[in-house]
Amino acid sequence: MNVTPAFAQFNTIGLVSPRQKIEQIAESDNSPIHSEIDSDDGDVIDDKDAASDTSLTCLSLSCVSLPLLRIKVNSPFGWRMDPISGKNHTLHNGLDLYARNDNVMAMLTGVVEKTGSDSRAGLYVVLRHGNIRVSYCHLSKILVVQGRKVSAGDVVGVTGSTGRSSGEHLHLVTKQNGRVFNPTIMIDFIRETTLLHSNIPKR
Description:
This protein is mostly beta strands. Helix content is 10%, strand content 34%.
């Protein structure tokens, strides 16, 4: 099968409506992982600017993977009232996905930059994909080690409810050049790439 390279950029999409289980957002914590997972309000990239300088070349579906087999949003990225403190205009810096002891997969080919445990994020894995970093949080198991190369679809952990969490889910944090952006943009890119390749005729 001959496949023409597909050049695509992350696209801007709207936020998904929030559902029930919502991650507890701590107002302050000095744990070292926060340099990777958390962000000050001024470091958020607008949807329209997210990944504007990052393009991916996909020769096959092996270049992308959804983080879970089933994608169901519990709580979206963005500003909201903190469900615990009641504080208004609190940034939920990631995307919460429904999960029940599910395998967590690398979304892109990259390198395991960091693994560990944090009082807020619980067990976590941080993957580096060029200038994009993806953090997978609240895991029950970590199945990779720092420095390992991973391909899209490789299992890096198992979902759980470690750290500050109101129930089992996968908390995704995505950053570009150190600035947080909406993880739904990456999920939308992966879905579009999958759809594109499913429409390529076989020869």
